[in-house]
Design goal:
The protein is about 30% helix and about 40% strand. The chain starts with a strand and ends with a helix.
Length: about 100
């Protein structure tokens, strides 16, 4: 089984928790972690910037990864949010849990 971590960042903790909650309640992610604030250094629209953000990491299955990405973009407070993903290794118990929770019925 292939598991995925899908991540984004938000300007506030409440925005991060709202995204995490909506994705888990929709069955698109088995679980989420909210971390922050984290320091950010970036170039956006041609300008250098620094600030603080809240990171949201969600664990999902191969079958739900694309839908989760779309959900995060659609529900995000930013117009063009950064959404990234990476493949995860996991114990059999963890993988079974993620597959079971995110199974589309």
């Amino acid at each position: 089984m292939t598991l995925w971590e899908v991540s984004t960042a938000t300007p506030t903790e409440s925005d991060a928790r709202a995204l995490a909650r909506s994705a888990v309640q929709a069955g698109l992610a088995a679980g989420a972690q909210v971390e922050g604030p984290v320091g950010s250094v970036f170039v956006h629209q041609g300008e250098y910037g620094e600030g603080q953000e809240w990171r949201v990491s969600l664990m999902t299955s191969e079958a739900r990864r694309v839908a989760l990405q779309g959900h995060l973009v659609e529900c995000h407070v930013w117009e063009n949010p950064q959404v990234t993903w990476r493949e995860l290794g996991a114990s059999d118990g963890c993988a079974d849990w993620v597959e079971r929770v995110t199974r589309a019925d």
